[in-house]
Design brief:
69% helix
Length: 51
């Protein structure tokens, strides 16, 4: 489950925007995007087989 990565990215993004720290904003955005991509893409053969 990659959901905590999305939450952490969102928190860092908000803190970076409020405190105007660009490195936190960048890291937060990267974590958010990677977390969302990993949530949407099935990993490790988790596709369903219908016979």
């Amino acid at each position: 489950m990659v959901f905590p990565m999305v939450v952490l990215g969102l928190i860092l993004l908000i803190i970076g925007l409020v405190a105007s720290i660009p490195i936190l904003t960048t890291i937060g955005a990267i974590l958010l995007v990677v977390g969302l991509i990993l949530n949407l893409v099935p990993i490790g053969g988790s596709r369903r087989r219908v016979f």
